[in-house]
Structures are given as structure tokens and as C-alpha cells.
Predict the structure.
Amino acid sequence: MSQASLEPPLHPFSDARRLAAEAIGTALLLAVVIGSGIMGDRLAGGNVAIALLGNTLSTGAALVVLITVFGPLSGAHFNPAVTVVFGLRREIAWPLAAGYVAAQTFGGVIGVWTAHAMFGEPILQVSAKLRDGPALGLSEFVATFGLIAAILGSIRFRPDATPMIVGLYITSAYWFTASTSFANPVVTLARCLSDTFAGIAPSSAPLFIAAQFAGALCASLGCGWLLRERGNTDF
């Protein structure tokens, strides 16, 4: 295999546009996650299930839209775990991957602050909502493993359906995981900055993030074997 074949293919959009797409898309995603959580909490009259349902449907629907719009630009990662997986697959160069993570982090913070502003909340907050324990760590491992498997499987067999598949998976994972499926290190960090329905205390974040990266790496390895055709030695 030649050295040239190890390089990611030339992308039709400039790196600056790709980074902007990741920042804007992640900002919109966090605005949806936090904003719909605030709205659901305010309208649910104390019924947490109804508040979570509103949060779930809004997030799942937004993911379909955001991935459809930004996918052709940047791949619509919006998630460092996804970016690392594509780096390991040699589909994005590592310097650009680092830029993606920085753009995602910046966008996530802006998205949280924007949601606070829209609902008249204090802009600067720190969550006090503890989400601790091995069950939640396992939940984040499973949620992220499933997310990466959904992405890689859909890209392999039904690339045009990827936005819908990811949106449906996250909608489901909100309810079948005890952690409500953060499945995203940047989303986890950004939600530490919101003491609202969707928040997570900073002390709870390290377990979530470690489990998310572990789940992503295991899914990458597993799908690399599972989806490989006979005679194909590529990762």
C-alpha cells in the first residue's frame, strides 16, 4: 500500500468551512438539547417523563436536520468520539481532527449560552445535577458503542439514510439507557455549564467521557472486523 493511499481523500470544501460547520452544528445541537430540556421542564408540571419526552423528540429531530445539512460539509461529527474514530479509519487527518474537536468544544459552549439567553436564564452556570455510578458509566459505554455502530453501519450500507438512522438511534437511546444517552464528550462538557434539566455536574463528567471514548473505540474495532468484506485488508 502506497503512502498516498493512507492520506484522506481531497475534500471539496476548505478546512475553514469544515471547521465552521462543526462549530455551528455543535452549537445548534447544544442549543436544542438545553433549550428543549428547559422548555420541557417548564411545561411538564413536574412530570419528568413528559419533560424527557420533549427533550428526546426535539434532539432526535434536530439531529436528522443537522446531519443532513452539515454532513456534506464536514461529515457532521459534532462529537470528538466520532472524530477520533474517523481519524483511526484514516478518513480525516489528525491535525484537522484536532481542529474539529476545538471547533466542537467552542460551538458546544456557545450553544449552551444561547439556550440560556433564549429562556432568560443566567448565561454563566455550573450544573449541580449528579449523574454518578457504574450503571451510568455502562450506559454511556453502550450508548456510544451503539452510536458509532449505527454511523459506520449506515455509511457502509445506507449512506443516504445516515441522518435518519442516527436521529432514531439517539431518540431510542434517550430511553433505553439509564444515563439518557449523552454519547458525546463535548455534549457532556457543555452540559456541565447548565444547571437546568439537561445538566450534569462537573464531578460526574469524567466517568461519562471515559466510558464514551471506550465505547467508541470498541465499536470502531468491532465494526472494522464485522463490516469488512472478504479479501479487504483495510481498517
About this structure: Helices lie at 15-43, 48-74, 80-88, 94-118, 134-157, 162-176, 185-191, 205-226.
